[in-house]
Design a protein that fits this description.
3 domains, OB fold (Dihydrolipoamide Acetyltransferase, E2P), 30 strands, BirA Bifunctional Protein, domain 2, globular, alpha+beta
């Protein structure tokens, strides 16, 4: 520990010296009347990519470019630098005898990371490098912080997301994802506009949360003194516009859902929702397939993609498979031959499928959970799953052939849902009944269930024509087109937990763990335990041999997500020191949000037999301390010093 500290001190001193040197350089520039921060604009007429692409035509021509210095070489009578701009890099060649002497002297003091404007002549060096021979150089902005070291760069994933601005500077390949994202959204708009759809905007703040099954963010409007919900979908206002006669509408916009984060989910994300009067879900399937296949061809020039380690073929002609057929194919259960709710729930249980606590034990819920827990993960190539149960489709029209099912589909690619659509329910009486069921679920504690929207019912009573509607996850589509494994790779500024502060509910410190000696309290902290009630100690003794067979280990949280359709369960992906990830489920979601536990060091019993929970095998148990305080249950997940390595055994 002492050796490590001795190594860290010089590094900190060196960094401090570098920072001071850069500030001294800035002060010197300001005192000499060359303050870069007083420059308001710089005239450019070229960039690095254009110079290289049209070198033969531009050779010998004067150009003006600007960008960031990324490297420096030489610095005697001749200097070489790499200039990075929005389109790439180009070499700068500067000779002292070809520039003003004072200007060259200032140029020699520029640092890597500084932003400069350069006027010069395009030429090729003796080694054949396309370059700009510098005649004049202007410091446009002084970089006071050094960029990450050249060879190691910015490789820490979390730091890359927190400091995307540095990520884009030192990892220019990252920019490709966001170029493709921009191109995809542009393609979507052109695609919709060419089909006669009109882009509209609907409210982000609403007095009712609806249009999807999700937990909303709640805020408060001070002037009106009412709570408001950030939208979880744009569906209901868009369908009101169809009632009003705007027969083809779409909206591309941000959606906000107060749920866990994982590689496929971010609390705020982007969707396109579109609605077309006098169409049904078959028309929506045709439209969705045309949209994605044309995007692949236009942006990538191929139907053949790779994503999440799988080779995908987006060639048009995607299969359309009813949900009950998919369950029969992959699970061997024919739900169409089952007539009672009890038999359906028993059939689901026979293959290890449990229904959520708040879900009614019905045929439809059993069918859906079998698909969700057992089939979805097996769908790799583009597949439309159709005919969802009415139990999980409160806004979709019933199938005329089987009233238990709806004219709804979801598109799955590489076991990821890409979009959701249906023939819209336009029967106001049926819609009110389905809203009422959602209200009943909400009263039972399901805070993802919908609310009663009387105004939407009123709109339907005026008459909604037969309508097809479709919602598409923009982020998921971009993930596929860029072969990105995490949604954070395609969102410029993904949601991150705070680096400082404390979660007051559980005293979870969000800052990095400090060395043990820094955690010692200088004075006793007074805690009132007078209102605490604990469970009585067990009277029955356990023999030592039995107890010693329990394997207690330190584990580190690599990922933590909320289990879909469960109010209590969190799914932990843990490093237990073996090199193989361990999955443990724990019913502590009412006490902790998943993102605040990532990176923590916990204690687990690792030699318990796997136990299926919501269709997921939980391999072990995490230890928590529970007590009662003023009639309310309190729970603290046991967290230990982060200096303890994964897999360390407890005695």
């Amino acid at each position: 520990m002492a050796d490590k500290k001795n190594q860290e001190v010089p590094q900190e001193e060196n960094l401090s010296q570098l920072l001071q040197i850069r500030r001294d350089k800035l002060k010197e520039l300001q005192e000499s009347g060359n303050d870069p921060f007083q420059i308001t604009r710089y005239e450019m007429d070229n960039d690095s990519a254009n110079i290289k692409a049209n070198f033969d035509a531009l050779e010998g021509q004067a150009v003006s470019v600007a960008g960031r210095l990324m490297s420096k070489r030489g610095m005697g009578k001749v200097s070489f630098c790499d200039l990075q701009d929005k389109s790439g890099r180009i070499q700068l060649y500067a000779r002292r005898d070809e520039m003003d002497e004072a200007e060259y002297a200032r140029f020699k003091k520029f640092d890597i990371g500084d932003i400069v404007g350069v006027k010069g002549v395009v030429f090729r060096t003796q080694r054949g490098e396309m370059s700009v021979r510098v005649e004049r150089v202007t410091l446009l902005s002084k970089s006071l912080l050094p960029l990450p070291e050249k060879f190691h760069g910015l490789t820490n994933t979390e730091l890359r997301y927190r400091q995307r601005y540095v990520d884009l500077i030192v990892n220019p390949e990252v920019k490709r994802n966001f170029v493709i994202r921009s191109q995809f959204i542009k393609h979507v708009r052109e695609f919709m506009d060419n089909r006669g759809f009109m882009e509209v905007e609907t409210p982000v703040l609403n007095t009712i949360s609806g249009g999807a099954t999700a937990r909303p963010f709640i805020t408060h409007h001070n002037t009106l003194d009412i709570d408001m919900y950030m939208r979880i979908a744009t569906e209901l206002p868009l369908k009101r516009l169809i009632v009003g006669g705007m027969d083809r509408v779409y909206e591309i916009g941000r959606i906000f859902r107060n749920e866990g984060m994982d590689p496929k989910h971010n609390p705020e994300f982007t969707t396109i929702e579109l609605y077309q009067a006098y169409a049904d879900f078959n028309d929506m399937m045709d439209l969705f397939e045309d949209l994605l296949t044309s995007a692949a061809q236009k942006l990538l020039g191929t139907y053949q993609l790779e994503w999440q380690g799988e080779k995908l073929d987006l060639t048009p002609g995607w299969p359309r498979l009813p949900m009950h057929e998919a369950v029969k194919q992959y699970c061997g259960i024919d739900f169409m031959a089952i007539t009672s709710d009890e038999e359906a729930v028993a059939a689901a249980k026979s293959i290890g499928v449990e229904l959520p606590e708040t879900a009614e034990k019905t045929w439809g819920n059993a069918l859906y959970e079998c698909f969700d827990q057992k089939v979805e993960e097996k769908l790799i190539q583009p597949t439309f799953i159709t005919m969802h149960p009415v139990d999980v489709s409160p806004l979709a029209k019933r199938s005329p052939k089987d009233p238990r099912l709806t004219e709804r589909f979801e598109l799955f690619i590489c076991h990821s849902e890409m979009g959701n659509a249906f023939s819209e329910l336009n029967d106001p009486i049926d819609q009110r009944e389905r809203f009422q069921k959602q209200v009943e679920l909400r009263d039972k504690g399901d805070d993802e269930a919908g609310m009663m929207d009387d105004d939407f019912i009123t709109a339907l009573e005026y008459g909604l024509p037969p309508t097809g509607g479709l919602g598409i996850g923009i982020d998921r589509c971009v993930m596929m087109l860029t072969n990105s494994d995490s949604i954070r790779e395609v969102i410029l500024f993904p949601t991150m937990k705070s680096l400082d502060g404390v979660n007051k509910k559980n005293d979870v410190n969000n800052t990095a763990s400090e060395a043990p000696e820094k955690n010692v309290k200088t004075e006793s902290e007074k805690i009132d335990f007078s209102k605490v009630k604990i469970e009585p100690l067990f009277e029955e003794m356990v023999d030592f041999d039995t107890f010693s067979k329990s394997d207690f280990r330190a584990v580190k949280v690599k990922e933590c997500v909320a289990v879909p359709k469960s109010k209590k369960l969190l799914q932990f992906t843990l490093d237990d020191g073996t090199g193989t990830d361990r999955t443990i489920l724990s019913g502590i979601h009412s006490f902790y949000e998943p993102e605040e536990l990532v990176g923590k060091t916990l204690i687990a019993i690792t030699n318990l037999p796997p136990r299926a929970m919501m269709g997921i095998d939980s391999c072990g148990m995490l230890l928590s301390a529970i007590h009662e305080e003023e009639g309310e249950e309190k729970l603290h997940l046991l967290m230990v010093d982060d200096h303890i390595p994964a897999g360390a055994k407890l005695y």
